[in-house]
Amino acid sequence: MEHLKQETASGAQLNMDALYQICPQCFTESKDPKTGEVKHAVDFEKLRLLLGDNVAEGDERYDFTWVGKRAALQEAAKPIRKTLRPYPEESVDWENTKNLYIEGDNLEVLKLLQNSYMGKVKMIYIDPPYNTGNDFVYQDDFHQTKQDYDFFSGDVTEEGERLVKNTESNGRFHSDWCSMIYSRLMVARNLLKEDGVIFISIDDNEVENLRRICNEVFGEYNFIANLIWQKKFSRANDAMYFSTMHDHIICVAKNNLAKDEKGWKIGLLPRGDELPSGYGNPDNDPRGPWTSVILSAKSGSPSLIYEITTPSGRKCLPPSGRYWSCSKDTFEKWRSDNRIWFGSDGDGTPRKKTFLSEVQAGLRPNTILFQDEVGNNQEAKQETKALFDGLGVFDGPKPVRLLYTLGIIANLDKNDIVVDFFSGSATTAHAVMQLNAEDGGTRKFIMVQWPEECDEESEAFKAGYKNICDIGKERIRRAGKIILEEQKAKKGDLFSGDQKPLDVGFRVFKCADSNMKDVYYTPAEYSQELLLGLEDNIKEDRNDLDLLFGCMLDWGVTLDLPLRTEKVDGVTIHIVNDGDLVACFDQNIPESAIDHIASLLPMRVVLRDSCFKEAKEKMNFFEIFKQRTGWSEEEVKKNVKVI
Ligand SMILES: C[S@@+](CC[C@H](N)C(=O)[O-])C[C@H]1O[C@@H](n2cnc3c(N)ncnc32)[C@H](O)[C@@H]1O
Q1: Is 532 a domain residue?
Q2: Pairing between strand 417-420 and 444-449?
Q3: C-alpha of residue 72 to centroid of ligand 1, in Å
């Protein structure tokens, strides 16, 4: 039985897989000069031939680069040996919720989510540090020589590493920010659905670099708009030059609809009371406002010249040299449906009514998001204060209305997934719950946030919130409660009919070192003696639930699925979504348990190496399992793994 890798996918492998889909011809087998292993590799010469004249030659080409770009690219592709540990006790409605709150560095978390969420996310919103000279920017491993650190002016967090203040005196002030965002966007892109979209908040400090990076990561063609969000309503008269009233929100589609019919379609905003010009409702038609077009055309056939009697009794024909634009039958149908307009006196030339509700479902969004429509910084501050009993627990949240509007523009289906991997006070989660409350949707959110420590002097710290994750989780708890109460007040009976109860819960996970000891990855480096002395390859502090989620990540199973356990002759069997994955991590599994696992008709099975005392027992399991499931040898090999 094969071992699960317990390591994230390598970016290089993912690229190879994608390339193989479009040109398998340029793949060959070659021998690794170091290990002698024969492996699948790209025949570059063949690829070059396949691309014809479209290969960049020579030194001159359009390129956007910075110090550390290569390393950032490598970092994005590098696999990691980490896991997400579940924390049911910090979660809300652990059993039923489909929402996730993940604590950790977002690059690592994105890598961990890749297998399970690749191509499944409809909307990503991020609000990264803007690099104003005062921001803390997460230091990835890739430029971590001691000298690199010296560029930074200090301000290393208590944990002694990682989140570092990026000041303008840093010789790589822009480069470090570019590397940080580039590697994250590279991985995040993989999560987006083909008709997905990403929105990125930013200001003038890095907007230029961000746009170029987006062009490179997503393809220039998929840039949709640089939206302007009016974040303030009052002028700062003490500004040296301009009073800055806006932020940018860069909108990029995974695929542009203009080039790909499966690409992102924009969502239209609700109309409200605003009527487009030319529309009215002079006859109080219950179908709402309409406009009209003349009923005659330049070309047609003789059958399109017939007499129409107006309500006033006047007989009329099409104007000379013209034809009616519909047959007599169609005209009669439209007339009886009150779709023909003869003017308010009933004596005019007939016109065809076109109802607003039938042509356009809503308003096409503007590139400027005005504060009176989507909220401003002040409103956002008040919102979080109101949720936290008047305390200013978080600096610089975004308003819920802004995220709510972006959710509509993103054209979210009722059960789409929304990700925010710089989630701060979790405004995005709040907006997703609000959207669901209003239309009975079951959209899910995934929030990712580094447990950035709160300043000991801050109101948040004094109120007991040690880090930003504590604030984000509490915000979702409080906002969820209020939304539920509001919904109840509006609808009375919440869960009537077939509408699902509103999901205001979330499962908490924390990014941590692998569940496996080093020996799991590099057994060859350990002596036989040492191996015999090692009881197990799993770290002592890990429990069944840790192992289960580690396997789910590894095998590409989403983390929101329902879980249950069953006991058979003293061993515990974990069942994910009625059999998407079945796991047993106990020692010495009796035959009755093997039978039970097989009877569940699982898609995948994971066991622990130490479930079997000896190799012979493993073989025995293999054989019994084949018999009970009717699976072929190949199927058992593919679907049953050990850790
Ligand atoms: C500008 S705030 C986001 C605010 C959020 N939009 C809101 O409405 O509350 C950016 C957040 O990203 C977090 N952050 C920065 N680097 C991170 C990283 N590498 N991984 C995860 N979170 C990070 C910071 O701690 C900060 O809370």
Answers
A1: no
A2: parallel
A3: 20
* Ligand 1 pocket test target in 125, 449, 455, 475 with most atoms within 8 Å of CB: 449
How many A from CA of 452 to the centre of ligand 1? Answer: 9
* pLDDT given for residue 397 in this prediction: 98
Q: How many CB atoms lie within 10 A of CB 90?
A: 17
Sequence-distant (6+) residues with CB within 8 A of 406 are: 123, 125, 199, 249, 431
Residues 167 and 221 reside in one and the same domain: yes
Mutation to probe ligand 1, out of 423, 448, 465 (largest number of atoms < 8 A from CB): 423
For residue 420, the ligand 1 atom closest to its alpha carbon is 6
- What SS3 state is found at 456? coil
**281, 354 in Cβ contact below 8 A?**
no
In the 8-state DSSP scheme, what is residue 485? H
Task: Ligand 1, residue 106: give the atom nearest the CA.
Answer: 20
Residue 625: what pLDDT?
85
**CATH number for position 110:** 3.40.50.150
Q: Ligand 1 center to residue 422 CA distance, Å?
A: 4
Q: How far is CA 228 from CA 216, 251, 337, 411, in A?
A: 22, 11, 44, 19
The per-residue pLDDT for 60 is: 87
Q: Is the CB of 105 under 6 A from ligand 1?
A: yes
Q: Is there an atom of ligand 1 within 6 Å of 444 CB?
A: no
User: Amino acid identity of 557?
Assistant: V
Question: How many domains are contained in the chain?
Answer: 4
pLDDT tens digit sequence for 32-44: 888 888 888 898 9
Same domain, 386 and 483: yes
**Hey, what are 391's tokens?**
């305390």
User: Amino acid identity of 566?
Assistant: E
Asked if 104 and 508 count as a contact pair (C-beta separation under 8 A), the reply is no
Q: Are 547 and 612 contained in the same domain?
A: yes
Position 298 scores a pLDDT of 93
In the structure encoding, which two tokens stand for residue 344, read together? 């308010």
Angle at 188 between CA 183 and CA 191, to 5 degrees: 150
| 183 pocket-lining for ligand 1 (C-beta < 6 Å) | no
**Are 203 and 157 part of one and the same domain?**
yes
Q: What is the C-alpha separation between 266 and 409, in angstroms, rounded? A: 6
Spans of the chain, pLDDT less than 50: 142-160, 494
* Domain annotation covers residue 70: no
Domain extent, residue 56, equals: 2-61
Q: Has residue 277 been placed in a domain?
A: no
- CA pair distance 367, 226, nearest whole angstrom: 7
> Among residues 313, 340, 359, which one ends one of the domains?
359
Beta strands at 640-642 and 2-3: parallel, antiparallel or unpaired: parallel
Same domain, 42 and 141: no
Give the span between the Cα atoms of 556 and 582, in whole angstroms: 14
- Which candidate, 276, 438, 285, places its Cα nearest to that of 360? 276
